[in-house]
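Students often ask why inverse folding is considered easier than folding. One informal answer: many sequences map to the same fold, so there is more than one right answer. In these notes we will look at a single instance of the problem. The structure comes first.
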């Protein structure tokens, strides 16, 4: 999938966004994550706070995606800053790195093993957390406001906090439901009209 942002080099981004160049240093030779039709994401170092972040850059307006991430409580990435220049938009968000893992990588890493009961319970916890996050996004069935549809749910847009805990006398060992899964890439999120 190609988009206008995929042709941007680090130097071009710094020229378009001097505010980003002043505070952030891009890490790596290329963007991170899967290719997207709506933008690119770079890993960067926040020189003021001394922490790594992710920066999404797009030729599309990212305002709705940012408002949505800020309005939904819970299982979306945190947005720190938003930048807009003629023709381009960017925002800085939390970087999900290990022990966070995309659901697609989790699926590749954890191949099915017959009689692996713990794996079934882990998958149950992940599915339950993902569904809880989607309920938050999609709103309550009779709600008149805040009803959205994430139109791009796929394993690459679900991140799992793979940090098992030892819970005595329980097969449910993953983090709490509200902390276990984060839903990302809310660029194709549609607001449903109220009835």
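Output (designed amino acids):
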């Amino acid at each position: 999938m190609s988009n206008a942002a995929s042709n941007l080099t680090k130097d071009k981004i710094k020229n378009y966004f001097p505010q980003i160049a002043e505070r952030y240093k891009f890490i790596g030779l290329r963007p991170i994550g899967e290719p997207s039709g709506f933008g690119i994401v770079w890993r960067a170092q926040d020189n003021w706070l001394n922490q790594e972040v992710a920066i999404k850059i797009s030729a599309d307006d990212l305002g709705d995606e940012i408002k949505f991430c800020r309005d939904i409580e819970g299982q979306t990435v945190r947005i720190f800053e938003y930048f807009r220049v003629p023709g381009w938009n960017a925002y800085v968000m939390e970087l999900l790195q290990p022990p966070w893992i995309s659901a697609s990588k989790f699926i590749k890493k954890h191949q099915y093993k017959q009689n692996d009961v713990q794996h079934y319970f882990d998958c149950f916890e992940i599915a339950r957390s993902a569904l809880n996050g989607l309920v938050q996004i999609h709103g309550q069935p009779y709600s008149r406001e805040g009803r959205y549809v994430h139109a791009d749910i796929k394993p690459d847009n679900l991140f799992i906090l793979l940090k098992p805990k030892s819970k005595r006398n329980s097969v449910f060992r993953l983090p709490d439901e509200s902390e276990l899964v984060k839903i990302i890439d809310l660029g194709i999120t549609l607001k449903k009209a109220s009835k």
